[in-house]
């Protein structure tokens, strides 16, 4: 009855619905291209150096710049929890500080929980997605996102695709 009422209201009002799709390619680790594999390996190494005494969740990020340079980082926690920072943003802010004119073209993330690599792909948090989208817009270049687990790797061609309806500077005008 409730559903019927809403369906009727929908038809009468002419209200439109939009559906949003996220496209991700899934790979087995051995199927991943060499360039992506290198980033995953570097992200995993970086995860081992994370400072995560509070969550024991160690995240590694490795990003590639348009000039070929690879920058690695990891999460940095703090006793005042919100003062900590995710691996992706540590990597991005360092990259942008060091190379302000160079776009980020790819970023791999991996995670280690209690000393063991996560089997499933690890996804960037919402705040990191929003921060990385700023880089895509700033440099006009998409960031290939490589979300890696030890048993499965998920890849998508842009961060903006991972955060539909994100906030942009256009709203500020
Ligand atoms: N973390 C990241 O480094 N990246 C993410 O995208 C999600 C979460 C970190 C933050 C915190 O140190 C720990 O993982 C647990 O949330």
Level-1 CATH class name = Alpha Beta
| Coarse shape | globular
Report the bound ligands by name, code or SMILES.
tetrahydrodeoxyuridine
In total, how many beta strands? 7
Going by CATH, the architecture would be: 3-Layer(aba) Sandwich
Share in helix:
25-40%
Main pleated sheet: 7 strands, mixed
Low-confidence stretches: none
Specify Rg, calculated over alpha carbons.
Answer: 19 Å
CATH superfamily: Cytidine Deaminase, domain 2
- The span between the termini is 44 Å
Order of helices and strands: HEHEEHEEHEE
- Secondary-structure-based class equals alpha+beta
Number of helices: 4
* pLDDT averaged over residues: 95
If you consult CATH, what is the topology? Cytidine Deaminase, domain 2
% residues in beta strands: 15-25%
Q: Structurally, how many domains make up the residues? A: 1
Features:
single chain, alpha+beta, Cytidine Deaminase, domain 2, seven-stranded mixed sheet, 7 strands, binds tetrahydrodeoxyuridine
Short description:
This protein has about 170 residues and is an alpha+beta fold.
């Amino acid at each position: 009855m409730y559903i019927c009422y809403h369906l009727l209201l929908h038809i009468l009002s002419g209200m439109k619905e939009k559906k949003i799709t996220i496209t991700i390619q899934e790979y087995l680790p051995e199927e991943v291209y060499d360039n992506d594999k290198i980033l995953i390996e570097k992200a995993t190494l970086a995860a081992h150096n994370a400072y995560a005494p509070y969550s024991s969740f160690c995240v590694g990020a490795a990003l590639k710049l348009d000039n070929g340079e690879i920058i690695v980082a990891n999460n940095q926690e703090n006793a005042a929890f919100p003062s900590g920072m995710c691996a992706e943003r540590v990597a991005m802010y360092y990259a942008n500080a060091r190379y302000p004119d160079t776009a980020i073209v790819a970023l791999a993330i991996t995670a280690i929980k209690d000393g063991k690599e996560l089997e499933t792909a690890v996804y960037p948090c919402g705040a990191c997605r929003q921060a990385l989208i700023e880089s895509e817009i700033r440099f006009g270049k998409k960031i290939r996102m490589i979300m890696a687990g030890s048993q499965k790797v998920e890849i998508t061609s842009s961060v903006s695709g991972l955060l539909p309806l994100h906030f942009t500077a256009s709203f500020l005008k």
